[in-house]
Amino acid sequence: MKTNLDVIGVIPARLASTRLPQKLLRIINGKTLLQWTWENAATCRALDELVIASDDQEIEDIAKEFKAKVVSTSIEHQSGTDRIAEAVRDVEAKIVINIQADEPLVHPSIMDRLAQELLDSPEITMATVKRRIEDEKEINDPNVVKVVTDKDNYALYFSRYPLPYYRKDGEKQEFYKHLGIYAYTKDFLFTFKNLPKSKLEEAEKLEQLRVLEAGYKIKVIETKFDSCGVDTEDDLLKVERILASRRCDEK
What we know:
Mean pLDDT: 92
Oligomer: single chain
Number of helices: 8
Radius of gyration: 18 Å
CATH topology: Spore Coat Polysaccharide Biosynthesis Protein SpsA, Chain A
Distance between the termini: 35 Å
Strand order of the largest sheet: 5-4-1-6-10-7-11
Number of domains: 1
Order of helices and strands: EEEHEHEHEHEEEEHHHEH
CATH architecture: Alpha-Beta Complex
Helix content: 25-40%
């Protein structure tokens, strides 16, 4: 691995999953979910390096088969953030992008924008992404995290419940979906890692709330591109249909 980088992308990958066992190794149109995520991220122009960080030998072996770079990490990590921090500990990188292993549909331009946002604005230490919700079913879906932001597009709050609450019928309603991809300066990544778990984080089961509760800011950029994380069998089927449609369009 190179040791002096502007931007490194890390895909934290673990085999355990309560809702969809071994989901990263599930086959979608001939490839594992993990491979789809890696191949998609590899097309991002901003990345100087892309690695998979894992504590599982089976994941490491399969990742190496599709020529991914793999960093072995401790089995003791409680979160992807901890795993990423270990993976980049000895790397001289300015920006670290956290790419969720079960998000194979994140548009590469989103990663490019996140990286550029931090490279261009030294005051920003962490950034993530939102998209306006168009499917009304997502508004009340607790698996779709909502985000509200201030006038400068810094996060005010993230929730699994619909935010904001509109009191008047007929009022124009706008809800924004949070896409689970993050960029941090390397220094702030370690600050984040060392923050104690917060009450809001425990309540919503959203790690990013730890940052807000500690008084730090998260920049939120808006995108027109949607994504779909894989947490259930239905999600897996949805992603399979989308990827199959893309392959047909390319022919």
